[in-house]
């Protein structure tokens, strides 16, 4: 009986020690292809990384051009000319985000969705490049229409 507990204890300790030695993936290795800047263009990444609200349809557009529907754990990668751009998100309400881009830079916009009692609320929030690059690791890139 003691030997069973001893074996279980050893496996438990080994399992915990393996978890504590886990390495965090490098930002550059994981996301280079998604966020590599383009010299004469701007990149806008619009992502939705939360799990909640899977059934809430959210429609995205940029400069009055349809991008598509964005669902949980997904993102769009848009290559645009440097300058002013208007990103819109629609569900039960409409969120509008104005962005001035520069060539050779990458911009991350987080598509937020809050579920209310009677309707859903969407919002667009710009985040820093480091935060955005980390948060899209858990998302799948969607194809543009």
The helix/strand class is alpha+beta
Taken from the alpha-carbon principal axes, the silhouette is: globular
Low-confidence stretches: 13-34
Measure the end-to-end span: 63 Å
* CATH arch. level architecture: Sandwich
- SSE pattern: HHEEEEEEEEHE
The average pLDDT score comes to 81
Query: How many distinct folded domains?
Result: 1
CATH topology: Immunoglobulin-like
Percentage of β-strand residues = 35-45%
User: Which radius of gyration do the C-alpha atoms yield?
Assistant: 20 Å
CATH domain class name: Mainly Beta
Sheet with most strands: strand arrangement? 8-7-1-4-9
Helix content: 10-25%
List keywords for this structure.
145 residues; 3 helices; five-stranded mixed sheet; four-stranded antiparallel sheet; alpha+beta; Immunoglobulin-like; 24% helix
Q: Describe it for me?
A:
With 145 residues, the chain is an alpha+beta fold. It has one domain (28-141): Immunoglobulin-like. The chain is built from 3 helices and 9 strands; from the N terminus they run ααββββββββαβ. The strands form 2 sheets. The protein has a 5-stranded mixed β-sheet with strand order 8-7-1-4-9. A 4-stranded antiparallel β-sheet has the order 3-2-5-6, with no helix packed on it. β7 (106-115) and β8 (120-127) form a beta hairpin. The longest helix has 19 residues, at 2-20. The protein is globular and about 50 Å long. The protein starts with a helix and ends with a strand. The model is unreliable at 13-34 (pLDDT under 50).
């Amino acid at each position: 009986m003691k030997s069973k507990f001893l074996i279980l204890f050893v496996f438990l300790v080994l399992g915990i020690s393996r978890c504590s030695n886990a390495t965090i993936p490098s930002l550059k290795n994981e996301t280079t292809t998604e966020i590599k800047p383009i010299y004469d263009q701007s990149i806008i990444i619009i992502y939705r990384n939360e799990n909640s609200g899977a059934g809430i349809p959210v429609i995205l557009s940029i400069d009055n051009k349809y991008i598509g529907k964005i669902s949980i754990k997904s993102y769009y990668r848009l290559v645009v000319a440097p300058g002013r751009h208007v990103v819109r998100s629609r569900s039960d309400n409409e969120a509008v985000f104005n962005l001035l881009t520069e060539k050779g830079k990458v911009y991350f916009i987080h598509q937020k969705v809050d579920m209310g009692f009677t309707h859903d609320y969407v919002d667009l929030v710009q985040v820093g490049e480091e935060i955005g690059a980390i948060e899209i690791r858990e998302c799948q890139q969607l194809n543009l229409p």
